[in-house]
Amino acid sequence: MPKLHLEPSIVTLNAAISAAATWQSALGLVSDGRPRGLNPDEVSFAAAVSACEKGLEWRRALSLFREMSSRSLPPSLFAANAAISAFEKVERWRGALSLLATLQRMGLQPDLVSLNSAASACEKGSRWQGALMLLVGRDSQLQRLALVRDLVAYNVALLACMRGLLWRLSLDLLSQMMRNGPEPTVISFSPALEACERSRQALQTVRLLDTLQRRVLS
């Protein structure tokens, strides 16, 4: 742009960060903006956090999110969700839950993306109880925030049930999906089938397989 006698703006910088091919490029653009008089804003940092999340750089994602506060930038739920997702991808459930708890202290209300990512981090980190506490039951975080489970939330909860061999709860969740939506997929049925099979519930396993043939595979 300088070669064309054009002055970059914060909008240009943010677009470049969002389009960066790697997290290293995104961080480089955040740093390069300062000598040009462009102070990265909350959009800049959110885009950089997202780039780090995609690169599995959870430490850098968290550091950038914290830096927003030190720069007195407005907290960003998008950046927070990207940081929680970074923890989820490397199975660090403690970090995901800690950041989730921090959101409300910052004046941010978690959304379904926040809860799904944190719950998935718990499930992947063999903390299936934590996933269910976030997504299932009257006292769950999801219920307290008056959010409605989507397909991702149901599938994460079903995986948690599989880990805990909670076959009855698996069947209940599938029944809820078939009654009220979203429509369960093969990915939804698979953990429920495994929970029933590992719990030696042969009859329930056969019934589930029959339902799967009729509703999904036919």
- Low-confidence residue ranges: none
How can the largest sheet be summarized?
none
Question: What radius of gyration results from the CA coordinates?
Answer: 21 Å
What is the residue-averaged pLDDT?
92
Task: Count the DSSP helices.
Answer: 13
First-to-last CA distance: 56 Å
Estimate percent helicity. over 70%
Order of helices and strands: HHHHHHHHHHHHH
Strand content: under 5%
- Shape descriptor: elongated
- Structural class determined from secondary elements: mainly alpha
Query: How many β-strand stretches?
Result: 0
Structural description of this entry:
By secondary structure, the chain is mainly alpha-helical. The chain has a domain at 150-218. It has 13 helices and no strands. Helix 3 (42-54) runs parallel beside helix 5 and helix 4 packs antiparallel against helix 5. The longest helix has 16 residues, at 202-217. The relative contact order is 0.07. The model has no long low-confidence stretch (mean pLDDT 92).
Quick take:
By secondary structure, the chain is mainly α. The protein has helices at residues 10-19, 23-33, 42-54, 58-70, 77-89, 93-105, 112-124, 128-135, 141-144, 151-164, 167-180, 186-198, 202-217. Helix 2 (23-33) runs antiparallel to helix 3 (42-54) and helix 11 packs antiparallel against helix 12.
Secondary structure layout plus pairing:
Elements (H helix, E strand, L loop, with lengths): L9 H10 L3 H11 L8 H13 L3 H13 L6 H13 L3 H13 L6 H13 L3 H8 L5 H4 L6 H14 L2 H14 L5 H13 L3 H16 L1
Features of the shown structure:
218 residues; 13 helices; elongated; PPR_rpt; TPR-like_helical_dom_sf; Pentatricopeptide repeat-containing protein; repeat
